[in-house]
C-alpha cells in the first residue's frame, strides 16, 4: 500500500508542476454532488478505489480505521458482524460507495438528528496535502484531541483540502429494538408534534413527513421502545405500527434516496432549525430530521431568479439551501457563504492546497 501512496504523491506533484487540476474519485457514486466541474479533459482523475483495507478495528474500543478506497458496504458488513454500526447512516448511492467519499461528502442519513453527523464520528485522519506531504490529525480515541478539529474539518470538504488516505471513525452498537410508527398528519401538525416529542424522553431515531403522512422510528432498549409505543398511541387509531420488513425498506429507501419521491426533477436540500414553521415554496416537499432537513423537488432546475427566491425564503427561516441534484446547476450548488466565513474557507484552501489542484470549483 505504501507504493500506492507514492503513486498518489507523484500525481499530486505532477499536477502542481503542470497546473492541471486533479479530480479525486473513489467509487464515483457522488460525482453529481456539488458544483459542475466542467469537461473531464480539464482534470486528471486521481483514483483511490484500489487503496482499500481495514487498518485497525477493535470492537471493544468502538473505533475502526480504514483506508479511503474501502467500500462502505464492506465496512458495514464487518461492523454488523460485531453488532455495531456507523450511527450516522451514510447514504450508499450504489455498491461502489467508499469510506473516503462518505467523509469527503459529509452526508448522513435518517439517524442524523438523533446520533449526529459524519464529523461527530471522525476521530482522526491521514491526509495528503497539495504539496504531496502526508499529514496525520487526531487519533483513535475520543480523549486524544491533538488535531481533532482538523480531522473533523475534512468531513464535507468535498476533497478540496486534500486526499484523505485513512480515517478513524467512532462506531456504536446496533439498537436492541426498533419500531416504526405511521400517522396521518398535516405538515403543520407534524412539525408541531415532532418538536413536542423532541422535548420528551422518547427514543426517536428518525422521522419523515411526506404527503400528509408522518413516519417515525424508535430505537433503543426493548423497554424504552415499548414504553414509547404506548405513549405515542400505537395501540389507538392515531398510529399504525409497520412490520419489520416494510419499516426496514422504508428507511433504507430514504437513506439511499431510492424512495419514489426522489425520482426525477431537480432536488433542493433545505437545512433549517427544527422549530421553523412550514416554508411555502412551489414544488413537492419531504421533511426529515425532526424538521431540520427538508427536501424540495421541482420539475426542472430553478433559474437564477427562482434560486434566489428559494434561498431567500430559507434564509428567512434561519437556514440555507443547496441545489442537491439537477441537470443544470447554473445557480450554484451551495448557498453563498457570509463574507467572513468565505474568507476563512479561502485561507484553509490556501493552507492545505496552495496550488489549487484538488477538485477546483467543486464547492
SSE inventory with pairings:
Blueprint (H helix, E strand, L loop, with lengths): L1 H17 L3 E4 L18 E4 L6 E5 L4 E5 L4 H10 L2 E2 L13 H7 L6 H4 L6 E7 L5 E5 L9 H6 L9 E8 L1 E2 L3 E8 L2 H12 L5 E7 L2 E8 L1 H10 L8 E2 L2 H13 L9 E6 L12 E5 L4 E6 L5 H13 L3 E6 L13 H14 L11
Parallel strand pairs: 1-2
Antiparallel strand pairs: 3-4, 4-8, 5-9, 6-7, 6-8, 10-12, 10-13, 11-12, 11-15, 14-16, 14-17, 15-16
Can you walk through the features of this model?
This protein is 29% helix and 25% strand. The protein is an alpha+beta fold and 363 residues long. Among the domains are: 2-173, Uridine Diphospho-n-acetylenolpyruvylglucosamine Reductase, domain 3, CATH 3.30.465; 177-256, Alpha-Beta Plaits. It has an eight-stranded antiparallel beta sheet, with helices on both faces. A five-stranded antiparallel beta sheet has the order 3-4-8-6-7. The longest helix has 17 residues, at 2-18. The model has no long low-confidence stretch (mean pLDDT 91).
- Multimeric state: single chain
For the biggest β-sheet, the strand order reads 13-10-12-11-15-16-14-17
How far is the first residue's CA from the last residue's CA? 30 Å
Helix count from the secondary structure assignment: 10
Number of DSSP E strands? 17
In round numbers, the mean pLDDT is 91
Query: Taking Cα atoms only, what radius of gyration do you get, to the nearest Å?
Result: 21 Å
* Proportion in helices: 25-40%
- Would you give the CATH topology of the domain at 2-173? Uridine Diphospho-n-acetylenolpyruvylglucosamine Reductase, domain 3
Give me the CATH architecture of the domain at 2-173, please: 2-Layer Sandwich
SSE order, one letter for each helix or strand: HEEEEHEHHEEHEEEHEEHEHEEEHEH
Secondary-structure content class: alpha+beta
